[in-house]
């Protein structure tokens, strides 16, 4: 039987505020346990929450960026449940009237564009964290994270494969970083998701029973967890079993999902409006002010890169993945005076490879845009070849100096003197009579052999274009 997969994601983006959503306690990551949780975060008697205006502004920013309706009136509610890292016994969230409603995000998978609906995005506070290691069979509770502002972004069940889910999640990750409302650090838990998955016979309209996978905090784990859970559900149904609606955890070490608890319904949480917080009212003038502050968004920047720099869709998509990468590219083009395609190739090629190997982000690159531009200038003006530039790039990466200094120090200026290159060509042809005869007999692939020999004899300094032109003349019958 053919099956159709149905996936919806609930993404939790930690908002980049300096203080918590309802208190003045700090949100900085990495503080000693329980040093950043105040009386408000713990819900001690007599304290009152005060809404963080910066968190509201960031939620509105997101709503405008995804073409959603930003509610003029939204309400905070108490979501009641017991868990050790939730000392108040309830979480302040939004339920019936969220701040952001009905938006959308465009993704692209295998060259096909698709619109993913965003049902809602609501403000809420994070819970603390349970620690299960190094406590000799006990659990520790760190409440530093309690009260940290979150924007929970809930998609429609519009995704039909793990690839689409990853594309959506990556697009969302890029967007919140462009908007500077979330640092997107998945290792620190700033950007994580719960995934709802179900399967149904292909062509059936009714949704199958769904399971929820909790707290997936890397793109790789999301894809692996979805694939495993989809396979589990299909095998279960085909063997005569039924899928239970439940919350499951993904075990990365065993690459399996396992049951955590029966899936709760909304009425299990006994939502009711928080009596300590007034309804949130958003004035139209406030929204218009935020709209003027929106940056150039990823899709807009991608289109501009294609038009302004004549880049392909693929190149423009890669270079606009983050604001930092896009800025690095534009700085390199401006400072080098080189063709945009040359800059794009080096950034997506050599630079990206070095960054990946060193596990660094573009903003941490040891090679600045100015330094790369200096190297590309010398390729563009034929001072050096692209081949010579590669070891120079590595030297710049290792902090050995700028391109011009290294070129002079190593004597790497490209040979463009036609007479000097012709002399080398003559010597190479004379040294390889058998290959010459074979080439003239029709084995045209030997042309690259002669090019290689000339470049080797010139120690890579001969201008490749001139070498090719001279060889074509001299090798002709």
TrEMBL record:
E.C. no: 6.3.5.-
One Pfam family cited in the UniProt record for this chain: GatB_N
SUPFAM superfamilies (alphabetical): GatB/YqeY motif, Glutamine synthetase/guanido kinase
Reactions performed catalytically: L-glutamyl-tRNA(Gln) + L-glutamine + ATP + H2O = L-glutaminyl-tRNA(Gln) + L-glutamate + ADP + phosphate + H(+); L-aspartyl-tRNA(Asn) + L-glutamine + ATP + H2O = L-asparaginyl-tRNA(Asn) + L-glutamate + ADP + phosphate + 2 H(+)
One Gene Ontology biological process: glutaminyl-tRNAGln biosynthesis via transamidation
Keywords: ATP-binding, Ligase, Nucleotide-binding, Protein biosynthesis, Transferase
MF terms (GO), sorted A to Z: asparaginyl-tRNA synthase (glutamine-hydrolyzing) activity; ATP binding; glutaminyl-tRNA synthase (glutamine-hydrolyzing) activity; transferase activity
InterPro entries linked: Asn/Gln-tRNA_amidoTrfase_suB/E (IPR017959), Asn/Gln-tRNA_Trfase_suB/E_cat (IPR006075), Asn/Gln_amidotransferase (IPR018027), Asn/Gln_tRNA_amidoTrase-B-like (IPR003789), GatB (IPR004413), GatB_C_1 (IPR042114), GatB_Yqey_C_2 (IPR023168), Gln-tRNA_amidoTrfase_suB_CS (IPR017958)
Record SMART domains: GatB_Yqey
Domain Asn/Gln amidotransferase: 327-475
Entry-linked HAMAP family: GatB
PANTHER family found in the cross-reference section: GLUTAMYL-TRNA GLN AMIDOTRANSFERASE SUBUNIT B MITOCHONDRIAL AND PROKARYOTIC PET112-RELATED (PTHR11659), GLUTAMYL-TRNA(GLN) AMIDOTRANSFERASE SUBUNIT B, MITOCHONDRIAL (PTHR11659:SF0)
Functional note: Allows the formation of correctly charged Asn-tRNA(Asn) or Gln-tRNA(Gln) through the transamidation of misacylated Asp-tRNA(Asn) or Glu-tRNA(Gln) in organisms which lack either or both of asparaginyl-tRNA or glutaminyl-tRNA synthetases. The reaction takes place in the presence of glutamine and ATP through an activated phospho-Asp-tRNA(Asn) or phospho-Glu-tRNA(Gln).
Subunit structure: Heterotrimer of A, B and C subunits.
Family designation: Belongs to the GatB/GatE family. GatB subfamily.
Name of the protein in its database record: Aspartyl/glutamyl-tRNA(Asn/Gln) amidotransferase subunit B
Organism (species): Thioploca ingrica
Gene name for this UniProt entry: gatB
């Amino acid at each position: 039987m053919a099956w159709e997969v149905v996936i919806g994601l609930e993404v939790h983006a930690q908002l980049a505020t300096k203080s918590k959503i309802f208190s003045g306690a700090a949100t900085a990551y990495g503080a000693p346990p329980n040093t950043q949780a105040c009386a408000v975060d713990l819900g001690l008697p007599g304290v009152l929450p005060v809404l963080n205006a910066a968190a509201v502004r960031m939620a509105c920013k997101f709503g405008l960026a995804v073409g959603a309706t930003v509610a003029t009136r939204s309400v905070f509610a108490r979501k009641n449940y017991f868990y050790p890292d939730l000392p108040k016994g309830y979480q302040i969230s939004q339920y019936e009237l969220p701040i952001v409603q009905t938006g959308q995000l465009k993704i692209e998978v295998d060259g096909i564009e698709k619109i993913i609906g965003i049902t809602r995005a609501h403000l809420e506070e994070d819970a603390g964290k349970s620690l299960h290691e190094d406590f000799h069979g006990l659990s520790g509770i760190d409440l530093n994270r309690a009260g940290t502002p979150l924007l929970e972004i809930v998609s429609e069940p519009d995704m039909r494969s793990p690839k689409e889910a990853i594309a959506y999640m990556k697009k969302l990750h890029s967007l919140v970083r462009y908007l500077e409302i979330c640092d997107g650090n998945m290792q620190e838990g700033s950007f994580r998701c719960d995934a709802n998955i179900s399967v149904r016979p292909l062509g059936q309209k009714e949704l199958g029973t769904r399971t929820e996978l909790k707290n997936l905090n890397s793109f790789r784990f999301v894809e692996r967890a979805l694939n495993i859970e989809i396979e589990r559900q299909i095998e279960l149904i085909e063997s005569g079993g039924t899928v239970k609606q439940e919350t499951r955890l993904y075990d990365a070490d065993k690459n399996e999902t396992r049951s955590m608890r029966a899936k709760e319904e909304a009425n299990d949480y006994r939502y009711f409006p928080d009596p300590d917080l007034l309804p949130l009212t958003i004035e139209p003038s406030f929204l218009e002010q935020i709209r003027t502050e929106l940056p150039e968004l990823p899709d807009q920047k991608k289109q501009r890169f294609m038009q302004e720099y004549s880049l392909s869709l693929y190149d423009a998509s890669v270079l606009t993945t983050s604001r930092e990468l896009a800025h690095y590219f534009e700085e390199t083009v401006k400072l080098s005076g080189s063709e945009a395609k040359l800059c794009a190739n080096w950034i997506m090629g050599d630079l990206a490879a070095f960054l990946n190997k060193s596990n660094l982000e573009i903003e941490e690159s040891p090679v600045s845009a100015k330094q790369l531009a200096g190297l590309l200038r010398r390729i563009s003006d034929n001072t050096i070849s692209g081949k010579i530039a590669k070891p120079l790039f590595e030297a710049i990466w290792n902090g050995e100096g700028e391109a011009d200094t290294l070129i002079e120090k190593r004597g790497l200026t490209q040979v463009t003197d036609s007479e000097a290159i012709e002399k080398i060509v003559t010597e190479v042809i004379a040294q390889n009579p058998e290959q010459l005869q074979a080439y003239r007999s029709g084995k045209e692939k030997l042309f690259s052999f002669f090019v290689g020999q000339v470049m080797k004899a010139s120690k890579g300094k001969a201008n490749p274009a001139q070498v090719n032109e001279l060889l074509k003349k001299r090798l002709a019958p």
